[in-house]
Write a structure and sequence with these properties.
mainly alpha; about 450 residues; about 0% strand; binds tryptophan; Amino acid/polyamine transporter I; disordered N terminus
């Protein structure tokens, strides 16, 4: 296998490498930070059930759509869209540029604030090993001091960005694939250890029933839309991350299977993380509905009280860092691939140059929580759903039948009925549901 740094495109060496990289993109802060606190806020089981439904109706169809666009287009998100929608005239051009611009914008914006939050997780790793000291006034004060300390947040943000740039600069195969082949098993290992820990210390039973016993009286329309939006974010959809990774796949043959594996891993890891977190919460008689502070305030507080809390804390925040790292890699890769494929930049220069720009854009988020929320809302509520809407319509209506169904056609038996079901879903159901997310983001409900 040739090395893939420099101008050559490269690709994933093995199918497993692809699945781990794509799952690495999907499994991130969304799974371990957002999903548990959303579930806590929206009352548990009913939210989980709706979320699973959204994964099936929006997540899976769009995941296939993105991967097949990348696989058939064979280039970065903009060039792949351009190649596959060329026969569709003006609609194709509009969709291509809409998706391309949104993808670059989302790559910049999401990574800029994502790196700040991931940086906080790095700070908590440092706290766990005694390289930083907690505020004597308690966990709330420790977190407030960190988030309110611009230079400190900016420092950890910088460390995280360096980690991401290093991997992307090293190439698809020798950087991304190699890193994810280590990071993903490490992540699963840590999660299973934590699960073993809580199964001994208790709280697992209450956690299980909280997650899986639906109480529909707690389910609001807002919760449904939140679940829909989250299904999107957690699978890294709407900005061509899966298009870009799909473009490094060598054949049509495994698209359907790989896509299922990625969605399954992502969902399983979110549920396991929730199971662990709520077990700790319930075993200590704490509150599940703590909101965004669940992971950074409630948990550290509990970790100080439980047996072996220091080690558990270290394991947990390492888990968060690893998950964020492999996601950050995919966010940068979307933009780097575009610079390499479209403008012929060398991979190394693209990774470093774009990394520096994103780092700079992240500084305001490091210094202001309001700016961070603004970036989060701008991307999660508007840019990603609009991007996803355009990708769904393009995959359903603008691609040729051959390209559109290539993944199914490569299945043993030709996958005709699956292809028909998918085409119907991506044409009508997915765009309609995504439109709901967009209208909700605009405050129309
Ligand atoms: N899926 C990641 C998470 O759950 C976040 C993420 C990574 C992402 N790459 C993305 C979201 C691309 C949207 C688009 O944390």
């Amino acid at each position: 296998m040739s090395d893939d740094t420099g101008g050559g495109r490269g690709g994933f060496h093995t199918d497993l490498g692809f699945v781990l990289a794509a799952a690495g993109s999907a499994v991130g802060l969304g799974n371990i930070w957002k999903f548990p606190y959303n579930t806590g806020e929206y009352g548990g089981g009913a939210f989980v059930l709706v979320y699973l439904g959204c994964i099936a109706l929006v997540g899976l169809p769009l995941l296939y759509g993105e991967m097949i666009i990348g696989r058939r287009g064979g280039k970065d998100v903009l060039s792949s869209m351009a190649a596959l929608t060329a026969q569709s005239g003006i609609a194709g051009t509009l969709a291509t540029w809409g998706v391309g611009l949104l993808a670059v914008g989302s790559g910049f914006f999401i990574l800029s604030f994502y790196a700040v939050v991931a940086g906080w997780a790095l700070h908590f790793v440092a706290l766990s090993v005694g390289l930083a000291s907690a505020n004597p006034a308690g966990s709330e004060a420790t977190f407030t001091a960190l988030a309110g300390d611009g230079p400190l947040s900016a420092w950890w943000h910088t460390v995280f960005m360096v980690l991401v740039v290093l991997v992307v600069a090293a190439g698809v195969q020798s950087g991304i694939e190699r890193a994810c082949k280590i990071l993903m098993p490490a992540l699963m290992g840590i999660l299973l250890l934590l699960l073993a820990y809580v199964s001994v210390t208790g709280g697992l039973g209450s956690s299980l029933s909280f997650l899986f016993r639906p109480d529909f009286s707690k389910l609001s329309a807002e919760a449904v839309l939140e679940a829909l939006g989250h299904a999107f974010f957690t699978l890294s959809l709407g900005m061509g991350a899966m298009v870009t990774y799909g473009s490094y796949l060598a054949s049509d043959r495994h698209v359907v299977r790989d896509q299922l594996a990625v969605a399954l891993l992502d969902t399983a890891i979110a549920l396991l993380a929730g199971l662990v977190i709520f077990a700790v919460v319930f075993s200590m008689g704490a509150e599940p509905g703590a909101g965004p502070g669940l992971v950074f305030i409630t948990l550290p507080d509990l970790f100080r009280q439980i047996p072996g809390g220091g080690v558990v804390s270290l394991a947990f925040f390492l888990l968060l860092v690893v998950a964020a790292w492999s996601s950050g890699i995919s966010l940068l890769e979307v933009v780097v691939a575009l610079a390499v494929d479209r403008f012929g930049w060398s991979r190394r220069m693209a990774a470093i140059g774009i990394g520096i720009l994103i780092w700079g854009l992240g500084l305001p988020s490091a210094f202001s929580g309001e700016f961070l929320d603004f970036m989060d809302n701008l991307t999660t509520r508007y840019m990603l759903p609009i991007g996803g809407f355009l990708i769904a319509l393009s995959a359903g209506w603008l691609l040729s039948k051959e390209d559109r169904e290539a993944g199914f056609a490569a299945l043993p038996g030709g996958g005709t009925s699956l292809a028909t079901t998918w085409t119907f879903t991506i044409r009508f159901i997915t765009p309609a549901l995504v439109l709901l997310v967009i209208l909700n983001g605009l405050g129309l409900f």
